[in-house]
Amino acid sequence: MNVMRFLPVLLLIASGGCSDTSTRLNLSRGPIEGLEADGVKRFLGIPYAMATSGERRWAPPVEVPGWDEVRSTKAFGPWCPQPDFDRREEGETHSGEGWTIFVDVPPNPDTSEDCLTLNVWAPSEASSSPVMVFVHGNALGTSFPVYDGTAFARDGIVFVSINFRLHTMGNFAHPALTRTADAAAPLARYTEMDQLAALRWVQQNIAAFGGDPENVTIVGSSNGGAGILQILTNESAGGLFHKAIVQSGNGWWAPWSHSQHEQLGCLLASMAGLDGCNATVEQLRALPWHELPVTGPYAIDGRLWQKGATELIAEGSALDVPLLIGWNDFDGSSLRYSARHVIETTHPDVMATYQTGQDREQDLAYEIYTDLHAGAPARWVAHQLEEGEPSYLYLFSYVLSSERDDVRGAQHAYELPHVFDSWDEIFPPVIGSFFVSEEDLEMTRIMHACWVSFAATGKPSCPGAPDWPAYNRASDQLMELNLTPRVLSRYRADQLDAHERHMNHYFEQSVANVEALLENGVQ
Questions:
Q1: Residue 303 near residue 294 (C-beta atoms within 8 A)
Q2: What angle do CA 202, 45, 195 make, to 5 degrees?
């Protein structure tokens, strides 16, 4: 039984259940009032930057003005603009290696361009406590119940989650925007600009919540994990955080040039009914956001981002902090292409390391996609950074009790409820006992403790697990996170080594697909 499939329905019948009291504190911009219950304070929907509509659309985030009256922070802010992906069949999806474009997918009704807010959960008696800052994936927002920070605060962590611009609203270039921007202003990558602004806010304000600004861990899953690697390779982020966690976050990119990104912007403008490259800034910013096709490739703006993250990691230019990085053994569940496409585009030397056969085409595609997009890049990143602060590599392989007859392994992002220990927020007690077994809860206790210990000390320590060795290629060891955690040596080394040897083949395919898109448009 697929638990996540039922989540939207279950959220409608979930309830809070605890008795809250108001609590106040003063921030750098003004006083706020949140809620406190059961030893945890929570402040929701705190603005860290102004709305991104009008002249601030596709511009660097602007700090909010100060306020004198107490601001209520008892409710989450809206999610940033995004399609309603549950209704994607109503539009069109076009994709190739290195890009995906959604056209005419209805907008999610719970979104707004006034969305640059964050949330803080803190122990009631926090004092110089470790801090975690969570970057969510490429959809939804911080009010999604899985992302509730209560369990982290209960266990001594000041936990922060941030909303930030996504997709075309967060990653867009166009000649008109480049011409009218200040000469030194960063371009195009507004998603990461927002994330950096939120990290600066944390440095300025987290002590007011009892957090230690000198002990900040950034953490993200899926596209959020990829975002952590982007931040990790941006020198302007130095000093804003001190440890990093990347969950199924890729790590290999052939980034678009800014010129290519502008060409894509011209294509999107044309698809939205404007005059392509001749569209003006005023026209672009007046357009309802959901009329632009949705996409958002990684690109280099030549200002704040001079090189791609993969290149910087290979050069040894990433910020030197302890890193916890890994993937799920069925991350291939996020596969966006046909099995045949995956198999046909895999290098022959890589294919030679897999068991092939007509009767296992779909399984083979999932295995390749898991290794190429999650496993091999995570292992490669850990290897590239092993000479500095320690990197700890993991494999999450636990499957919920109710799903073991239905799935091939631990699906993409299915580690999140375990990391957050957020089952009480996802399910009311009676429903929860139906979906979540004692074994599932034990796995949650293990995973959550691993993440808490890493945030506190820089080394993960998991209940019932052996000592977790720092990664080095000579021993090639990782921690398998399951009910009995264990250290594995050379896990899938033949396959992962082959992908690493031929990573340029993957990049060349991505570049060719991008060039074809820009030359021919969406077919």
A1: no
A2: 40
Residues 230 and 242: their CA atoms lie apart, in Å, by: 15
| Known catalytic membership, residue 222 | yes
Q: How many domains does the chain have?
A: 1
Domain assignment of residue 157, yes or no: yes
Given a contact cutoff of 8 angstroms between Cβ atoms, the answer to whether 242 and 321 are in contact is yes
**Catalytic residue, candidates 222, 248, 422, 453:** 222
pLDDT of residue 147: 98
DSSP 141-166: -TTSGGG--HHHHHTT-EEEEE----
The confidence score (pLDDT) of residue 10 equals 46
Of 64, 74, 58, 79, nearest in space to 29 by CA: 64
Q: Which residue from 129, 78, 128, 85 is spatially nearest to 106, judged by alpha carbons? A: 85
Identify the pLDDT of residue 9: 44
At residue 19, the pLDDT reads 80
Instruction: Give the model's pLDDT for residue 435.
Output: 83
Q: Which residues of the chain have pLDDT under 50?
A: 1, 6, 8-17
Domain-located, residue 132: no
CA dist., res. 61 & res. 83, Å (int): 22
Q: How many residues does the chain have?
A: 523
Chain-centre distance of CA 485, in angstroms?
Answer: 25
Q: Residue 430 has what pLDDT? A: 60
CATH number, residue 273: 3.40.50.1820
- Regarding pTM above 0.90, the answer is yes
Q: Determine, yes or no, domain membership for 462.
A: yes
Interstrand relation of 31-37 and 71-72 (parallel, antiparallel or unpaired):
parallel
